[in-house]
Specification:
single chain; about 140 residues; mainly alpha; about 85% helix
């Protein structure tokens, strides 16, 4: 595996875990508690396992869909953030709102939409830069 792949995995995991933890369990914990949908004893390892799977898939998919040499990294980051942010939102927000009991579907959708937008605003540029740095490093190694 290339260094850029592992950098991209870290670019997703390092901000996503603390962001998710503090967003859901600290900053907005009272709002989520009022939704009456989360268990009292959140199983953090399951959430972390989900993030690891996501990080591996995103790190693998990014250079195949947004080749670092084919476009400016900013454009790849925006495209990645929009496409995968929308997919994540459709997987994690809409079906949960549709299936789970909660005191306010609207409040849940607003909270989770804001979280997903913030998450991808942070991780998309980091993943794009990780692949860009990895490609830059690989090309400078080849030329020397």
């Amino acid at each position: 595996m290339r260094k850029s792949f592992w950098l991209a995995v870290l670019a997703y995991l390092v901000p996503t875990f603390p962001l998710g933890y503090f967003w859901h369990l600290v900053i907005f914990a009272d709002r989520y508690h009022r939704l009456q949908m989360y268990r009292d004893d959140v199983i953090i390892p399951l959430g972390l396992a989900s993030m690891v799977i996501q990080a591996l898939v995103f790190a693998w998919a990014y250079p195949r869909l947004f080749p670092p040499t084919g476009m400016p990294w900013q454009r790849g980051a925006i495209a990645f953030g929009c496409i995968f942010g929308a997919m994540a939102w459709s997987f994690a927000v809409l079906p949960v709102a549709a299936k789970y009991r909660m005191s306010s579907v609207q409040d849940f959708i607003v909270l989770e939409t804001c979280f997903t937008a913030l998450q991808f605003a942070v991780v998309a540029p980091l993943i794009a830069l990780a692949h860009r740095l990895g490609e830059h490093e690989a090309s400078s190694t080849v030329s020397t």
